[in-house]
Amino acid sequence: MAERQDINGSTNDSCTNLYDHRTTAQLLLPLCYSIVFFVGLFGNTLALHVIRPNLKNLNSTTLYSTNLVVSDIIFALVLPLRILYYAMGFHWPLGEGLCRATSLIFYINTYAGVNFMACLSVDRLVAMVLPLRYSFLRSVRTVRNICIAVWLLVLLQTLPLLSMPMTNQESDGYITCMEYPNFEKVDNLPSLLIAAVILGYGIPVVIIMTCYIVLSWKLHVSARNNQVMEKSRRHKKAIGIICGVTLVFVVCFSPYHIDILQYMTRKLLYKPDCTELQSFQVSLHVTVCLMNLNSCLDPFIYFFACSGYKKRIMRIIKRPVSLSFTSATKSSPDSCSRDPAESTKIQLNTLRRNP
Length: 355
Hints:
Blueprint: H1 2-5, H2 22-51, H3 60-87, H4 96-128, H5 140-158, E1 167-169, E2 175-177, H6 189-225, H7 227-231, H8 233-269, H9 274-292, H10 294-305, H11 307-318, H12 321-330, H13 342-353
Antiparallel strand pairs: 1-2
Helix pairs in contact: 2-3, 2-10, 3-4, 3-5, 3-10, 4-5, 4-6, 6-8, 6-13, 8-9, 8-10, 10-11, 11-12
């Protein structure tokens, strides 16, 4: 009980059960992250290859997608170090500097992904519902400035991590890296993390959900007034993409941030004991793994969202490997740079003008 009442103290040093799941984690976490690494690196590299010929015909969707792909590729390149760390049973033999660098890339990828998905959601809303009034938001110059602003915002959110301790020498000789208990001595940690969740996750998720609710409603109303549109492939595809992106976002990002929020709230009310801290530690390893799945699910969104991407990828897969890259780059760009929402947007506008 004294431990619970000491709100400003640290029970971290007295907890010896925080890594009791080490044996199970040595098997499951490397397997999970290996899948994320191979699928994420291959999928995003292929997506970048598909996007590259269309960089001459830039539009807002291509720019946002390119930034998201680059972020995912950088993240995938450092995953082998995390796989090694988990395979060694939460032991980091590579030093504090490299631990900080990989941690920074991890959090940059996380919040770059969240923010660029929010940007894509707003972009979809403007393209399909407000194409004339807010068309300036989809100009190449504006989108480039927005992308720069997003990266600056993400850096401001993550750079404070460089001042925090990332590694910790455990009593059993293991050196942990980027584990929650290593941060427990940071002053006002619960308040800082709650604020980070609200800014880094709460605001973007409200934007994404609002955009897709409005977009789904507009599509539903338009389809109800136009039976041809309701039966069209583009209408069904648009609804499918909205549901898919929302599902991926909720499944990948929500568990981790809700987990952080609930535990930090408890820490503000009382001092959780070692059993609660150990349960939170295990849940973090699960929810972080779920969150990282986002980097290998993004290419599937590109595949279904853009017919141009799908055609080029299918063409590459069907052709011999020795000829696929040369023939693909020499061929004229597909309709990837063309907005997949154009026909739906036109029908929406037509209905608006002709009630």
